[in-house]
Amino acid sequence: MKITQNDYRAALTDRVNNKKTTNQPTPGPAQTSSASVDFSPAARQLQNLNSDQNDVNLHRVEALRTALANGTLAIDTSRIADRIIHSARDLLK
């Protein structure tokens, strides 16, 4: 697996912005209207994911990338297995 510096978030933002500008007609001066929009909880959660507070910790990613490249990354497989089992149990509840 190769880890590269890709900024997928910017590409997604560009696609969303392009859809917004091309699909929505612009109201003229005679077409003034007001609308109330109520977002669903899922839409609010997606909007929160796009906030700056959820950005990737680039220092941690770089440290992991360096440790992986040097062969010094210690992976605790029993911890990973325990978390997968815990997640599966949560999904079955």
| DSSP strand tally | 0
Unreliable stretches (pLDDT < 50, length at least 5) are none
Helix fraction by DSSP (H/I, runs of at least 4): 55-70%
Major sheet attributes? none
Task: Spell out the helices and strands N to C.
Answer: HHHH
Compute the average pLDDT: 78
Shape category: flat
- Rg measurement, Å: 21 Å
Give the number of helices. Answer: 4
Cα separation of the termini: 34 Å
In terms of DSSP E residues, the strand content is under 5%
Secondary structure class reads mainly alpha
Structure in words:
- The chain has 93 residues and is mainly alpha-helical.
- The chain has 4 helices and no strands.
- The longest helix is centred in the first third of the chain and has 16 residues.
- It is flat and about 65 Å long.
- The relative contact order is 0.05.
Features:
single chain, 93 residues, mainly alpha, flat
Give the topology, please:
Blueprint: H1 8-23, H2 41-49, H3 58-70, H4 77-92
Quick overview:
The chain has 93 residues and is an all-alpha fold. Helix content is 58%, strand content 0%. The longest helix is centred in the N-terminal third of the chain and has 16 residues, at 8-23.
